[in-house]
Design a protein that fits this description.
With 217 residues, this protein is of the alpha/beta class. It folds into two domains: 26-145, Rossmann fold (3-Layer(aba) Sandwich); 149-216, Helicase, Ruva Protein, domain 3. It is built from eight helices and five strands; from the N terminus they run αβαββαβαβαααα. Strands 2-3-4-1-5 form a five-stranded parallel beta sheet, sandwiched between helices. The radius of gyration is 20 Å and the shape is elongated. InterPro entries: P-loop_NTPase.
């Protein structure tokens, strides 16, 4: 069958508090996020692989605390926070030109009783920070880790990834995928994207038959 022309429509990602599924793999991170008063020096780093829900947690925190959010790679050298709670995402991408600004942001929030939430794929000891004073302060942060998904979280993640694409798969398909893909957030995102693309390109239904064909490849 000739492949049909398809368009890359953006997928709407649900990031509300009620869309976050808590399991053993992320329960600690969720509990820590919802209790900022317990963070030493009111700073926390959420560490987890790509697609593990770090941005989802950050969005929940942003909504609940009216926090200002910025990507580390976009942090300007003259950054001035506009809120008492600040979220800096993807800290492993902090450029050298923004390290002094990050140092001043950290100190400003600490001195004013503010809150600093950071996300990263790797812990602070692996961030490429050349500024010694900043490196020491980042390495002193409390870390909460999101582990690879267990069966419950992997199933919920697959369902959410389909729902973000306005697809309602049968439970049997979700169970089939859960037992056959690598137990990781990236693998779940990959198979859902591949199923959606293959179904659109070939005019087929998203089911176990199509999934088996893609997984065999």
């Amino acid at each position: 069958m000739a492949e049909q022309l398809t368009f890359r429509w953006p997928t709407g990602v649900a990031l509300g508090p009620n869309d976050y599924f808590v399991s053993a793999a992320n329960a600690q991170a969720f509990a820590m996020l919802t209790a900022p008063q317990s963070w030493p020096d009111r700073k926390l780093v959420i560490v987890g692989p790509k697609g593990s829900g770090k941005s989802h947690l950050a969005r929940i925190f942003q909504t609940q605390h009216n926090a200002q959010t910025i990507k580390a790679a976009m942090l300007p050298a003259d950054f001035q926070p506009s809120a008492s709670s600040v979220i800096v995402e993807d800290m492993e991408n902090l450029p050298a030109t923004a390290q002094e600004a990050m140092f001043h942001l950290h100190n400003h929030l600490r001195n004013t009783g503010g809150t600093l939430l950071m996300t990263a794929q790797v812990p602070p000891t692996r961030w490429q920070i050349a500024l010694p004073d900043l490196a020491s302060r980042m390495q002193a942060c409390t870390i909460t880790q999101i582990d690879n998904p267990d069966d419950a979280l992997l199933s919920a993640l697959i369902m959410k990834l389909f729902a973000d694409r306005q697809i309602m798969p049968k439970p049997a398909l979700v169970q089939y995928l859960t037992t056959r893909i690598e137990r990781s957030f990236a693998a779940a995102a990959d198979i859902v994207a591949r199923l959606d693309a293959a179904a659109l390109a070939n005019g087929r239904k998203i089911n176990k038959t199509l999934a088996a064909e893609l997984l065999d490849k």
